[in-house]
Write a structure and sequence with these properties.
The protein has 138 residues and is an alpha/beta fold. It has helices at 15-25, 52-59, 80-92; strands spanning 6-12, 37-42, 45-51, 73-77, 96-103, 109-114, 120-125. A hairpin with a 5-residue loop joins strand 5 and strand 6 (109-114).
């Protein structure tokens, strides 16, 4: 079977501001892409940013919405200190702190922030599994 790349696409209200947040604020590596979309390479997946109204139109659903969108994105790191570092980096770049990093019931350490469009990101350290290249095999 050929390897597959998963891609997560977020509908955003201000593409330029979101590109700045992810590229300059969080340091995600941006790929060449057409002006109406931005792609970033991540470990084993891609992140795409696309205008919220245009993405909703493509999916044939209304673009209005508020509150919890029924999903979160997760960024797994190597230590508790790295959780603190990434959450602080996101907040400095314009994210809203939702849940400060802390020990959690499942034995790890995590915190949440919301990006400029309100998408929830969990930054987590899980001592029960290793984060690294060998984790890419699914």
């Amino acid at each position: 079977m050929k390897p597959r790349i998963s891609m997560i696409t977020l509908g955003v209200r201000d593409l330029a501001a979101s590109v700045k947040f992810y590229e300059q604020g969080l340091g995600f590596p941006r790929m060449d892409s057409p002006p109406e979309v931005a792609f970033f390479t991540l470990s084993g997946t891609w992140l795409g940013l696309y205008g919220r109204d245009a993405l909703a139109e493509d999916a044939t659903v209304p673009s209005q919405g508020s509150g919890f969108e029924s999903f979160t994105l997760a960024h797994n790191v190597h230590s508790e200190a790295e959780v603190d570092e990434v959450v602080n980096q996101a907040v400095k770049a314009g994210a809203t702190l939702v849940k400060p990093p802390q020990k959690v019931f499942w034995g790890g350490y995590s915190g949440y922030f919301a990006d400029p469009d309100g998408h929830l990101w969990e930054v987590a350290y899980n001592p029960l599994f290793r984060v690294g290249p060998s984790d890419d095999a699914i």
